[in-house]
Amino acid sequence: MIPQEIEEYAERHTTPEPGFLAEIARETHLTQVYPQMLSGHLQGTLLRMLSAMLNPSRILEIGAFTGYSAISLALGCSNPEGLVHTIEVNPEFEEIINRAIHKAGMESRIRLHLGDALRIIPGLDEIWDLVFIDANKSGYLDYYQLVFPRVRPGGFILADNVLWDSKVIGHSVKNDKDTEGIIRFNEFVTHDERVDHLLLPFRDGLMIIRKK
Ligand SMILES: C[S@@+](CC[C@H](N)C(=O)[O-])C[C@H]1O[C@@H](n2cnc3c(N)ncnc32)[C@H](O)[C@@H]1O
């Protein structure tokens, strides 16, 4: 985790958040029990930059929450064919996500699917240029294995929270399915010869994976 002061310094020296993203962040902090799940200014900007670098045509996000990261990914993508599919299991977020997408003017660039990603992904007939895994931590490896065959060679998979509040080191995984899930995912990717990968110790850890 970055010390608070450093995070604030980095935010002051990063392109300011667009107003509609700042509004989503504010509303999320006011209305949600776990607002820290939101990507926020720095990570949102990183996602936007990565999307701008890759210029993907098809992006899959697993775990929309209040829509901040889906909008960030869509904002970066200047590909006229660019489309973000985002999946959220909790129907309580539907209204806030749709409102956020509307405020960002991204209705034609983001498609929201409500339901369990494990059920929805097999029905999406797309080849992915970029996948962002950010849902329940116990499911990371399942999501990876499910999407992998449909990621194009040279395509990228990003996975958030792979340091899991430092619990990946020296923490008992007994009765802790989330930590166990993240460790299992990190180990699998580390031994997966089909990919190049970087565990970037940014925020709560971002795994950047490129399919060879
Ligand atoms: C960490 S939050 C996502 C944060 C968001 N990507 C962002 O950066 O602002 C994780 C989200 O995944 C959702 N989720 C959990 N299990 C899921 C599943 N099986 N399928 C789809 N979404 C799921 C949760 O309801 C929650 O909203």
Keywords:
212 residues, globular, Rossmann fold, binds S-adenosylmethionine, seven-stranded mixed sheet, alpha/beta, 21% strand
Radius of gyration: 16 Å
Bound molecules: S-adenosylmethionine
Secondary-structure-derived class: alpha/beta
Number of strands: 7
How far is it from the N-terminal to the C-terminal residue, by CA? 30 Å
Proportion of strand residues: 15-25%
**Shape by Cα distribution:** globular
Number of helices: 8
Largest sheet, in brief, is: 7 strands, mixed
Which second-level CATH architecture applies?
Answer: 3-Layer(aba) Sandwich
Q: Look at the structure and give the mean pLDDT.
A: 96
**How are the strands of the largest sheet arranged?**
3-2-1-4-5-7-6
CATH top-level class: Alpha Beta
Q: How many domains in all?
A: 1
CATH superfamily: Vaccinia Virus protein VP39
Specify the helix fraction band. Answer: 25-40%
What is the H/E string? Answer: HHHEHEHEHEHEHEE
CATH topology: Rossmann fold
In terms of per-residue confidence, which ranges show pLDDT below 50 for 5 or more consecutive residues? none
